[in-house]
């Protein structure tokens, strides 16, 4: 028998320390290492990336960065403050970034680009700088600039952390100098974009780009009258969050995205009733953050309503945030497949 909870009744209160404690690789990358990465012999850049990251990791915490004394006396750090992994989906960038995090001495942080912008929103810019300036390494996964505000915000944050001697490592499938292209008038923010590019040495990782495969086919939604039986079959003995999809979307507006990780504490499975296409951009972007946290925690999902490949409007799937929406659909589809492994009794 499953124990039923409701995300719509949860309003987590999270301290600064608790927020920062969440900045570590997800369980999917909880035990990876450089040794467990398997470079493709046909793609020499993959082995070269491992070597570059290992070399970069050796200088973390050795005093070869910037910091207070270097700012006072005008000395410059050796090399750039960061390393930037550029490549398509599925070539192992997150694996390598998490491997660097595991190998580096602390204090250190690992989070997605969105998690860092949400951290600033929760703490304020100055308090975020103060909190992270004492770290030896800050890892930023899925680096993506979607609007001018994020461009200015992240360029300032990276610059101040680099000046404080913090080493930076990032992944993306867009070169630093091309960030923001296709989303807004990037030329108007070229200075900020160039500040970001100047922080990193770029390491290219070649390999098959899974973007060319398109979206995976989403499993069919569960008929509403079968949800309870399916929940019993899949989640017996588990804590399951059961919510009306529309009510959950409204509830998320009152919970800061930086707290979505805590919103899911202890949840083993998700059941959503009456999933519908999201038509408002702000609602969709909040939901993408929840989808990422569910994927991080590997929480299977049962849902009735529209299939997950119809979660976002065609305009959204072709617009400036399309990468976010494609990623969310792909991840939710994988979680939906995990939840449909047993026949109801």
TrEMBL record:
Keywords: ATP-binding, Cell cycle, Cell division, Nucleotide-binding. Pfam families: AFG1_ATPase. Gene3D superfamilies: P-loop containing nucleotide triphosphate hydrolases (3.40.50.300). Transmembrane segments: none annotated. SUPFAM superfamilies: P-loop containing nucleoside triphosphate hydrolases. InterPro entries: ATPase_AFG1-like, P-loop_NTPase. GO terms for biological process: cell division. NCBIfam families: ZapE. This is Cell division protein ZapE. It comes from Sinomonas halotolerans.
């Amino acid at each position: 028998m499953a124990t039923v909870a409701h995300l719509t009744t949860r309003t987590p209160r999270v301290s600064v320390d608790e927020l920062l404690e969440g900045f570590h690789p997800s369980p999917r990358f909880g035990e990876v290492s450089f040794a467990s990465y398997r470079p493709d012999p046909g793609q020499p850049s993959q082995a070269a990336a491992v070597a570059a990251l290992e070399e970069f990791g050796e200088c973390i915490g050795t005093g070869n960065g910037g910091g207070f004394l270097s700012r006072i006396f005008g000395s410059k750090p050796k090399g750039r403050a960061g390393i930037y992994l550029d490549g398509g989906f599925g070539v192992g960038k997150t694996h390598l970034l998490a491997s660097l995090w595991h190998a580096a001495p602390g204090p250190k942080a690992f989070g997605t680009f969105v998690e860092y912008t949400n951290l600033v929103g929760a703490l304020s810019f100055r308090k975020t700088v103060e909190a992270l300036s004492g770290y030896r390494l800050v890892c930023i996964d899925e680096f993506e600039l979607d609007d001018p505000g994020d461009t200015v915000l992240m360029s300032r944050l990276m610059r101040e952390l680099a000046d404080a001697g913090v080493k930076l490592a990032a992944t993306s499938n867009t070169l630093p100098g091309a960030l923001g292209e296709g989303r807004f008038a990037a030329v108007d923010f070229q200075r900020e974009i160039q500040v970001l590019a100047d922080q990193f040495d770029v390491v290219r990782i070649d390999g098959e780009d899974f973007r060319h495969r398109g979206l995976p086919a989403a499993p069919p939604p569960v008929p509403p009258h079968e949800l309870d039986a399916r929940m019993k079959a899949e989640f017996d003995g588990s804590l399951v969050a059961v919510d009306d999809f529309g009510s959950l979307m409204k509830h998320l507006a009152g919970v800061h995205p930086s707290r979505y990780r805590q919103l899911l504490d202890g949840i083993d499975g998700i059941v959503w009733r009456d999933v519908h296409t999201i038509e408002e951009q702000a609602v969709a972007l909040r939901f993408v953050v929840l989808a990422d946290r569910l994927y991080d925690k590997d929480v299977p999902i049962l849902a009735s309503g529209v299939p997950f490949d119809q979660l976002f409007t065609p305009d959204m799937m072709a617009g400036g945030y399309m990468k976010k929406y494609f990623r969310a659909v792909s991840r939710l589809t994988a979680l939906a497949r995990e939840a449909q492994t047993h026949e109801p009794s």
